[in-house]
Structure formats: structure tokens, C-alpha cells
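Can anyone check this?
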Amino acid sequence: MITMLKKLALFSLVAFGFIACEPSEAGHTELGALPQADYSLTYIDSNTVQLVSNSSGDPFLFNWDIEGVGTYTGESVEVFIGTMGTYDVTHTVFNQGGSASANGQIEILKDGPMPCIGAMEWLTECSNRTWSLAPQAGALWVGPDGNTTWWAIPATGPTDRPCLFNDEWIFSEDGTMEYDANGDVYAETYMGVAAEGCTPETNLTYPHDAWASGIHSFEIIPGNGPLPDQLKVNGLGAFIGIPKAANGGEVSSPVTSVTYDILSMTDVAGDRYMEIECDFGGGLWRFTLYSQS
């Protein structure tokens, strides 16, 4: 009898435990209503717009995606768009309850040059400026992330590959970029040559001849929040550093544009250095450029 009573008491405690653990309505967390996305657009000039979020519902994160231009964060952003056209805008806001988006368009009625400030001034000095790979160890660098090195060119790079370190990129305030190989290139087999090494640029054949000397264009994509300024080069065969480093993958034939993150801009006794990085999906190519005063 005593044993039976003990079993009943134990069963009651277990049952009570299940009841006590049953979630109650009072214990539910209410996430709240979704935000309402809205924004206003003001033209600062013919090629610069200010986007201001008028969203309600206490959003804590504000994103802007402008098709063909870039992605920005912040309750208010200023965006320069240098090319005439109509651009789709998606403004997305987030609060505790979730997210909501508002869509619209920006109409740019004429082409316009980038204002000569920041990275534009650094590259062009508001006229034109010539850049080459810095004659130092690590001017060419590749790795899986920003802290791990797969390979970096040694300090002997300028003597080992003189045809690479004499390449010049001339940036002008009007948005043109001239690539001057100075007659020869450091070619690898993916460029259609039989063996790796220095070769006259006239040895490049179609389609790889687009990587020879030529005139292209460039633009600066202003950074926003944690995002750095970017340098985008446009035109078939446009590149900086080495041709195969492209966005989304290393390539074996020329592409029409490549975008580089600008990591640093440093002045040393009047000489300028700029470190740029290309995310090719499987890792990062990094180049240090040099412009003599």
C-alpha cells in the first residue's frame, strides 16, 4: 500500500512538472507590427540626390539599393550618379517585427563628372595622375581573406617582372583611364601565350588583345557607413594590377568592368600609395598602386 502511494505521489509530481512547463499566453513575446517604408528624394544637383527615409514603426536599420549604382545604409544618404538614365530604387527598413520595402525611381537627365573630392582627387589631382604597381614586396597579394596569405610578390618583383612594374594607369578628372603597358606585358598562359613571362603586347591575340594598352573609363562609387569607397573601371579589357582578377571569379578572357574596394590612401613625402582589393569569390586579390610626386 505504501509503495502504491509513493508511485501515485511520483506520478502527481511528474504530471505537475508537465503542467508547470506548459507555455502560457502571458509568456509569449510580441514582436510588434511591421514597419511602414516610405522615403523622399531631393535633387542636390543634376547628378546628386539625397534620399531620406520617412518610414514609421521605429525602424532601426535603413537600406537603399539603387540598381546599377550600389547599396547604401543610413536614414539619409547622398548618392552621385554620373550617367544619364532611370534607376530603380528599393528602400528597405527593419524593426523588431520584420521588414518592409518601398520602391521608386531616380531619373538622371544628363551625364555629369564626379566632383573632384576624396578618392577622385587622390587619383587625378583634379587633372590627371599616373599610377603603377608599387615597387615593393606585397604589391601583388592574394589570399582567402584579409589576414591569410596564399601568395605575395617578393621585393624582387620589379626586377623579376619588369614588364609588369612598368605598366601605367593614367586617371583623368573627366573619367577616362588610360592603360599604358609601355610595349610589353607580363603574360600568363590564360592570356593565350605559350609560356609565362614578359612578351611584347603585340603578341596578345583576340580576344586577349583587349588587355593591351588602351583607353577606358572609371568611376568612384562613394562608400557608406562600413562600406569603403570603390573604384570601378569600365570598358572591355579594363583592369588594374593583373587581368585575371575580376569580380566573382578569376577570368581567362576580358570582361567589361571590374570593381575594386579602396582600402587605403597614404601620402609619403608627396608620393601617393593606394591599396585596392578585388573580391573574386574564392578569395581576394590586393594591389598596391604608387604615384610619384
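Reply from J.R.: I decoded it. The chain is about 10% helix and 45% strand.
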